[in-house]
Amino acid sequence: MGKSRSEEGTACDLATQLRGSTSPPAGNMGGQARRTFLKSALLVGLGVPLVGEAIGGESPAASERPREGDRFVAAESGRNELKPGDVLLDGPPVLAWPKDPKNGVVRDGSRLNQVLLLRLDPASLDGETRGHASDGTVAYSAICTHAQCPVQGWDKARHVLKCYCHNSEFDPRANGSVVYGPAPRNLPALPVRIDGGLLVAAGTFVGRVGVPRV
To answer: Cα–Cα distance between 85 and 76 in angstroms, integer?
Structure first.
């Protein structure tokens, strides 16, 4: 079935906005992360489903999902392993990739491995969220559960993560639950712990990342 005129108009409007954009949607985005966001959002706006996982010619190891013990490296600022202090209290989120500490492979071969790291007041987290957080630091998938757009926006006043493609919003203090928009389920959390002064994955994603295949 073809798109309606309103859907086509929305796609065209989004494409125009993205082509003319000069500033990233989130406070700490830039460079490659911003280009990845714009490319992904543009494809979704034009009706191209982002069900594929690979984003380049990386080795299979780079596409493997995060595992317990993985470190994190910022998507923007080199390959230094992240510490709790590298994540500002109350945001904005840090876009990061998991890194295998055994072989040094950064798991950046699949966009579904992108992670948002946030540091919040531990007292503001609900019980379920505290179960996968460490000293207020939480990690969530950066892929929206509606159409697999990148989730890069941060509303500091309301403490919600935002997906600009279709305006879904998620509360990181309440297990990534949907508070607005068409997203059908919460953002999958990635449990974290602090080990040796570094942020470390304490498990695998809780829930399926992105949109389930049918």
So the answer is: 16
Q: What pairing do the DSSP bridges indicate for beta strands 192-195 and 177-180?
A: unpaired
Buried-state track 103-133, b at ≥16 Cβ within 10 A, e below 16: eebbbbbbbbbbbbbbbbeeeebeeebbebb
Q: What is the pTM of this model?
A: 0.76
- DSSP character at residue 165: T
DSSP secondary structure code for residue 211 in this structure? S
In this structure, are residues 174 and 163 in contact, taking their beta carbons and an 8 Å threshold? no
Q: pLDDT digit string (tens) for 96-136?
A: 999 999 999 999 999 999 999 999 999 999 999 999 999 99
Q: Which residue has the higher pLDDT, 13 or 204?
A: 204
Per-residue confidence band for 79, with pLDDT thresholds at 50, 70 and 90: confident
d(CA 44, CA 52): 12
Question: How many residues appear in the chain?
Answer: 214
Residue with tokens 């790291």: 117
| CA dist list (Å): 163 to 5, 28, 143, 146, 176 | 23, 15, 9, 9, 13
User: Measured in Å, how far apart are the chain's first and last C-alpha atoms?
Assistant: 18
Say which residue, 119 or 18, is predicted with more confidence.
Answer: 119
Q: CATH number of the domain at 54-201, please?
A: 2.102.10.10
Say if residue 163's pLDDT is above 70.
Answer: yes
HSE-CB at 153 with a 13 A cutoff on CA atoms is: 19
CA distances for 128 relative to 72, 131, 175, angstroms: 23, 5, 6
